[in-house]
Amino acid sequence: MNIYDIDDETNKLLTLDNFLNGLTVPEFIEQLSKDHSLKSGEVNSVEYLDPKPYIRTFESTLTQLKKLSEEGNAKKQKSEAEVSQYEILHSKNVLKIASIVDSMHSKFTSLDEAVTNVSSILSPLGESLQKSVKSKENLSSVVFLVRCYNDFYKNGICEELDELQSSNRQQDNKKCMSTISKLLKFSEKLISNDLTNSKECHELILKYSENLEKHLLNICEESYKNQDFETLRENSDLLFNFNGGGSVIQLFINQSEIFHQEINDINDNIADYDVWSLFKDIDNHKFECDRKSVELFEFIELSIKTESRAIVKVFDNSIAVLKIFIERIYAQILSNRVALLLNYSLKVSNLTYVRYFYCLYKSIAKLTSDLKDFFATNELDDNNDLAAVLDQSFSDLFTGYKKNYFESEHKSLEEIIYSTVAKFEMINEKLVKDQKLSQRIKKFNKNSGSDNDLELANSINDTATISTNRLSNTILEKSKLSSLSHFINSHLERSSSTKEHQKVIRSKILNEPITNTGNNYNIQMDFDKVDRMIMATGESILRILEITPAKSSEYFLRILEIVIVGIGKSYIDVALEVSYNVGIIQQDYKNSNYLNFQYLNVINQTNEILSVISSMVKSVILPLIVNSPQIKNRLIALMNGYLTRCELAITFIMKDTLQLISNKIAFNLSKQKKKDFLIKNSSDLELIQENTEACEETCLFLNNILSQLLRIFGLKNQNLKKLLIEINFILLNHLLLHLKKFQINENGGLVLTQDIVRYQSVITEFRVGFGDDVDDEFEEFNVLREIANLFTVQKELLPSLMKEGRLAKLKPYVVKQYIMKRSDYAK
Hints:
One of its GO terms (biological process) is Golgi to plasma membrane transport. By secondary structure, this protein is mostly helical. The chain has helices spanning 8-13, 25-33, 52-155, 159-166, 170-189, 198-225, 229-243, 246-254, 275-279, 291-314, 318-348, 350-377, 385-402, 405-427, 436-447, 451-457, 459-472, 485-492, 496-511, 527-547, 552-585, 601-624, 629-669, 682-687, 693-713, 718-738, 746-765, 775-779, 783-789, 798-802, 812-819, and strands at 41-43, 46-48.
């Protein structure tokens, strides 16, 4: 054997039956070469690879592979020849069998038709046979029934039925009960005068059936008490076969503990409950059902859950029994309890009634929901039959009460609001009798559309703008007269004696009470009362939403009407009317050192109350009626209409207040003496340390206004800002006209300048808290300083003075009107 021949192990891999034995080609080549790698040597200490063994081994392998390929090709050709022969043979067999298959198919079709014909013949026979069997059974049953009747008729007893009844086999017991049921109907039909004693026989059978039913019911009762549900189930099945199970169902339900507890005693003395005082308390908003009702609801839930498990064990049709059980609890126990509590609560008050109605409604709704969850969780109500019964029973429980529920809710809210505002209305009854403010509003609404009325409606918002525009034609910039700067600065600081004098007068004015007509009145609204009415309204909305959701949109509209009539017309409108009467109509600015503006606090209160009501409408009511667009539009129109009326009332109060202030300023300025500004001697000027009387009274009046308005409105209030700006322009306009009434000499001009500085210091205080926002409005007052300068400078300087500062912006004829009042103008 050649050393390079393939070894036996490799030959085993080169066969058709086990080619390579799962080795890959690289693995096979590596196996061929593994022995040759050991035969390497060294030449001159250098390793080298001898290729000869590899070449010879691979050549031998290729030779063997070639032989293997030839062998495989030969087998392939042989197999192909055999396959061709078998295909020809198969085709011949198919052709031969095809005729046989056709013949068999034809025979099968004929056989199928024959079987069909036989079936059509046998089918009526089968039906006839079934009828015959059924007739035989019926005949046997009828024979047995007649035999039993005959036994009762002749002997007064039927031993066969007694044997069936006493048998230990459930099937015999069922047959006994079924036979008795049929026997009762059969004997009743046989009652006639032709058959002697037929009636007595029927009564005998009836008595037998009653005794048997009573016996079975007694067994069921004992089984229930002993919790022997297996025996109870067997006997209940018998009674179901006898009379549909009505008696055993009634027995089972009557045995339930819920119908025998003192907790559902309708004769309970509910008048002694502690909860009534809480429910009728308007200011109390935390209440719940009485303790006994809560215990009853808990006991009902526990009883239904407990009995439902027993019912499932006893009755095949447990759903039907549970329905009856639930309906009876709702219609009997809960209905009696609800009627008892609601009837008594209505005697207490309408508020107590609607509150207790809501508590009962929520409590029983929760009970119903918990029971539905229980049945669903325990897979006792796959088709939601019990859920439907619970919902219907709950609905039926309150249906009768819901018809008149809202009327009670309506009366309750009216009573709360009326009782809250009644005293306020009564105290102010005489003052609101003439309806002065309401008459102004009606007149405005009647004449609405005219330019004057529109200007009046927007007077508070636009007063500053109107006044600014009125003066903008004459005053466009602010400046100071350099020639009088030292004089002005020296008079901005009062002497200590002057300050003390002003303090005495100011204290006297601030402490002087407002003139009273002799009528008692209350001009201040109580926010605690408003909170009470708003809380009551919120309660009503919540109850309506829960109890009558279908009609909630309509009811919300009526609730808002109550709020507007009660809180609005009977409280806010009365306060505004009294404010207008006391503050505007009754105040006598001529015989009083000052005006009392405390009535303006009603405006703040009105705004706050309207804000609360508007917030309630926007955040609570409107989102709840989004699906009722018509009612929503009516509600919005109702609310906006009342807000508009209140805005008009406030506008008239503010407008007439400004007019009252204007009249008072004009009255004070009318006290100005002509000689105040005609001082002939300079020595007389040095004796004058104080402002003129008219100036001092006017400034003290203005200080008093500012003090009162700050107390009423507080800093940063927009109403305060608008009022102060408007008062600024009122004073400015009066002074501009006032200076045209007096002859003024040079010394008188200095007195005038002193008065103007005083006015200026007061008006400067009016800017308190508003900073740069009111610069333009208040700086316009500086024109008075420049006008005063017209009376103090030499007449030669008048032309140049007229071209300086704010005077340059005035029309020449306006400036000339003041120059004409110089005492030396004629010269």
